[in-house]
Amino acid sequence: MWDWIVEILFQTLKLIQGFAGDWGLSIIILVVIIRLLLTPLMLKSTKSTARMQVLQPKMMEMQERYADDPERLSREMQKFYAENKFNPLAGCLPLLIQMPILIALFNLLRDLGKYFPEAAETGFSFYNVLPNLVMSPSQAMSFGIGSALPYMLALILFGLLTFIPQMYMTRNQTGAQAESTKMMMIVMTVMMLFMGWGLPAGVLLYYDVSSAWQVTQQLFVTNKVIEKAKAEEEARLANAPLEVDVVRRERKQRPHKKH
Hints:
With 259 residues, the chain is an all-alpha fold. It is built from 9 helices and no strands. It has a domain of 141 residues.
């Protein structure tokens, strides 16, 4: 299923490795290329998320108003999306695109020796910081704590860079919602650590660099985009013509006079 994506990544990685000379550096450059290509889509998704936050009160009001009439609610919501040129699924698109890339990269790095047989003898290292990018932390542990230490650090970063962005996104939540979200984040981080225990170090390196890019982008770019998009949407709603929801009453027939 992922063969064509694996082939594209293989050819791209082969081209990068031709001038980079180090497999870890090649993966980092691949991350930068993919992130740059996804940046316009990410910014569009961010604007969509910001608009949704502004439109959310109106949508909740409609859900309450037509709670007893699902068919009317569906029509009104579709009308609302059309009038505001809003796609509720737009925010999910970058994630849907990244997941196949990550899965394909896992398949590629797991079988690097098959794709690059000429380099299999010298190995696939990251400046000897991670001596073997095909090896997982669980495999490295069999060679002792000292040999496994770089892989364990990559795994810890894998967990932290899963937790930090989620924690930052939910920083304004309070009460029971905040506690529930924190618990969900902890469970998700533990699951990611469990999964990362068996992943090739090259996949961990890709994820660590990609997540670090996301955190940096969130701090210096995304927040400004969100604030601007919110301000623009609030101004648009403030200047929009007032809509009056008129409910026509059924006209009762007058009683006929008896002759």
